[in-house]
Amino acid sequence: MEKIVPIFWLIFLGFWAVTAFSAKPKEEMVSTDSVGGVRGILIGIIIFIILLRHFFGAYLSFLFHNIITFPTPIQEIGIGVLAVGLAVALYARYSLGRNWSGRVSFQKDHELVTSGLYSYIRHPIYLGILIMGIGTLAIVNFSFIAIGAVLVGISFIQRIKKEEELMNKHFPKEYTAYQHQTKKLIPFIW
Known about the structure:
Elements lengths: L4 H16 L5 E4 L8 H19 L15 H25 L8 E3 L16 H16 L3 H28 L1 H10 L9
Antiparallel strand pairs: 1-2
Helix pairs in contact: 1-3, 2-5, 3-4, 4-5, 5-6
């Protein structure tokens, strides 16, 4: 069952790579040096994990053991959760169209997208990625995935703050109204 997990993540990364070329040119970009780009953090975590496992796996075996061994039904549910997370992330990215950027930025002729998943929450891509992480953890449940999920979650919270400041700057009335109508990351909750 663990062998299916990379397929979901490769679909995610492939979609991102292909659609990145269609983004509008950037008009303004916010420095995320203090926040760290999500892409950089994800790549860093992946490289860190590969190197750790390859060179120091024998010494750090606790990272590569299951935290808890979930029964098969939980792992099967994890596959469903992973699929839902992938669908949410891809649909949200598709909905942004050319307004998307891998960095915190405002595009030329930027449009405020408030339809589809964006009518329920302001940051559905991040939610989709976090759901994918939960599904992955249910299937693989290595310690390093839990650590990675926490780090990525912290990065997302920091990026959300920067993104919302930028959107409020460029869409002061519209974005403030949008913030009052929708939750930030978790529908109906936060």
